[in-house]
Specification:
333 residues; alpha/beta; 8-stranded parallel β-barrel; 4-stranded antiparallel sheet
Length: 333
Amino acid sequence: MIILLKENASEQQLNDLSRWLEEQGVSLHATKGLHQTILGLIGDTSRIDIGQVMQMEIVEDVKRVQEPFKSANRKFHPLDTVVDVSGAKIGGGGLAVIAGPCSIENREQIHCVAEAVKKSGATFLRGGAFKPRTSPYSFQGMQGAGIELLLEAKKATGLPIVTELMDLSQLEYFDDVDVIQVGARNMQNFELLKQLGRLKKPILLKRGLMSTYQELLMSAEYIMAGGNEDVILCERGIRTFETYTRNTLDISAVPVLKKLTHLPVIIDPSHAIGMTEFIPSLSLAAVAAGADGLMIEVHNDPAHAKCDGQQSLTPAAFDAMMQKVMRLCQAIR
C-alpha cells in the first residue's frame, strides 16, 4: 500500500500519521519529492481501512500495491536511486563502466589492466578473486591473495573495486571492497542475501540464468528488507534454446526493470554473449536501451587467460569500444 500526502502536509501531521500506521503493525518507507511525499507501507496492510486513511486531513490518495516486491518498487520510490561509491555514481542518467579481468591472476596482470581501463574511461575496476566454476578442476581464483592484489590496484588507480562474494565465510576479506557482487548462481541464496542486507555496502546483484524479472526483484527485496538500499541490478544473459552464443542477452530487461523499479540497471555483455567480437555491439545496444552501466571483461593477454579468455577484450579493443560508447552517450544523453 502507498499513501500520497498533500503538498501542504506539516511535519507534525506526518509524524502523527506515521506513528498511527506503525501501531497497525507495518513499517514505513518515506520518499520526499519536490512537490509530494509518498509513504510506502511494508507488511500486512489487510487490516488497514483505506476509507479511514482517506479521511485524514493530510492524505491525498491511497493505493494498494499488488506486486510482492515493495522496497524495490518504483511505486514506493518514483525517483531513480543513485548509488554513490566514493564519488563514482551508478544511476541517475550517467553511464558507469565496470571493467577488468574475469580472474585476478598475478600482480602484473591486474595492475596492467587497471591502468589501461582507467585510461579508457572505466569508472570501476572489477576482478574475480573467488571464482564459481562449473568444473571443480578449473581455476578457482586466488581468493584472499587476489583481493589483496585488487586493493593494490585500487590504491594505484583510485578506481573503486567490484568483486564477487560466493559464501559468507569469505566476508572477512571484503572489508575494503567497494561493491560486493552476487553472482547469477547465488541470486536466490536467500541466507546470503539476508546477511548482505545488514551491510552498509553496495551490492551488485546479477540475474540468474533462468530467473524472471520478478524473481530478480524479490532477491533485491531480501537485501533491501535488511536495511541496505544500495542495490544494483545486472542483466548478464539468460539461458534459452540458442546454443551459438554462451547465453542470450535480454535487452528488454533494461526498459522493463526501469519501469518496475527505481534501482540502477546495468548490462554485462561479456557473460551474455561469450565472444569478444560481439561485445561492442551489445554494449552499444545496452546504452541505447537506457542502461545505467556496463560490466566488461578485459584481459591483457586473453589467449592465455585462466578464465573466460574467449569473452575478454584486450585493452586496445576496450579502448576502441569505449570511444564508440562515449560518442553514443553524447548523442542520446
